[in-house]
Each structure stands twice: as structure tokens, then as C-alpha cells.
Design goal:
Number of strands: 11
Oligomer: single chain
Radius of gyration: 14 Å
Structural class: mainly beta
Largest sheet: 7 strands, mixed
Helix content: under 10%
Amino acid sequence: QVQLVESGGGLVQPGGSLRLSCAASGSIFSISAMGWYRQTPGKQRELVAAITSGGRTNYADSVKGRFTISRDNAKNTVFLQMNSLKPEDTAVYYCNAEIIPPGGVVVLDYWGQGTQVTVSS
């Protein structure tokens, strides 16, 4: 029904930058919110940043001041600009979208497949 396609992950040195992108496609009436989560082995998946269709944002304390989330509503795309990257940012980053399907009355959660971000010297 809905597909989320992520890109932009990779290997970067500490202090470097990466820009993640996630585009949603399929049977979509509207998207109320999109966000990024990350997960490492043995740890719970955690929210990194989220943004509503109106532009309201939330960030994890650990990334405030370094990461910026933005959204292109016309293209159903969300971005995560990651600056001043640290080794502890290493994780698989997952895109999430809260989507209202055509004719729907509740939102449905969809997830991307994840993109690896590795911060290492």
C-alpha cells in the first residue's frame, strides 16, 4: 500500500555530516507526521527527530543542535541533516510515517527498511 524509500547513509568520520532522505509513495491521502528513529544491536529503537505536516518538530536531547529535520510535503519526503557526527550516532536509521489512507479514519504507521550510518575514524 505504502512504500518508504530511504537513502543517504554511509561511513563518515567524527565531525562529519550526512543527509538522510525518505520518500513515501503509494496510497496516501495525507501524512500527519514523519520522523527518524535509530537502533543499534541490543538497544531499543529510539526517536531521533520527527516533524508534523504543520512543521512542528521534536528532537532527542542527544541530537539537539546537531541534527535538523525538514520536510517537503509536496513530495512526501523527509530529510535529516546530521552535522558534527559522533561515534555514538552509529546506528541503523529508520524512516517512519504516520499516513492517512484514502477513505481512512485513523492513521497507519509505516517504516522504511533502514539505512546504516557509521561514524568512525
